[in-house]
Amino acid sequence: MESMRIVIYFFLGIILLLLTILTIGLFLPKKRVLAKQTVFDAPVEKVYSIVTNNLDWKYRTSLDDLKIIESNNGVEIWDETSNGYTIRFKTMEKKPCKFYSFGMESKHFTGYWFAEFETVEEEKTRFSATEVIEYKNPFIRALAYILMNLDKFMETYQSELRNKLKE
Q1: How many CA atoms lie within 13 A of 130 on its CB side?
Q2: Higher-pLDDT residue of 7, 150
Q3: 144 and 153 in contact (C-beta within 8 Å)?
Q4: What are 40-66's pLDDT values in tens digits?
Q5: What is the DSSP letter of 56?
Q6: CATH topology classification for 2-165
């Protein structure tokens, strides 16, 4: 009888935890927006070329795989896999050495990312990137706020890009 009570309390605790996470998710903003800016010691043409080249992705240690699904007139569709999780991307807009954007879709969220490139002095580029994510349900939204550190992801990407630019 005592063990049955423990099992019931355990499951009630789990249900209460799940309801709490769901409730928190209902109150969190549907969209997350993160913008980060840095200056690279490289000409804008080189920075833009690396950022938009999905064939040369191995410098991105945060990725396990990148597969280009389709490429047509500058518009690419590709899948990126990291830690067993795959996200689909599609080029939205390219303005050489000025602007680049793509959309993203996974089973848990949709969104887009864009970057602006600006020469700030000879051989230096201001790189401004913004990521916008909208989660598909409040439960995932709450978990993502806890588990998905967008700032760290963006910091890692910029660090990897900085290392690639030094090659």
Answers
A1: 9
A2: 150
A3: no
A4: 999 999 999 999 999 999 999 989 999
A5: -
A6: Alpha-D-Glucose-1,6-Bisphosphate; Chain A, domain 4 (3.30.530)
CB neighbours of residue 71 within 10 Å: 13
Q: Which residues of 33-43 are buried (b: 16+ CB within 10 A; e: fewer)?
A: eeebeeebebb
> What number of residues does the chain have?
167
Closest CA to 157 of 119, 117, 130: 130
* Cα–Cα distance, 36 to 161 (Å, whole number): 14
- Burial annotation 75-104 (CB, 10 A radius, 16+ → b, else e): ebbbebeeeeeebebbbeebeebebbbbbb
Q: For residue 114, what are the β-bridge partners? A: 101, 130
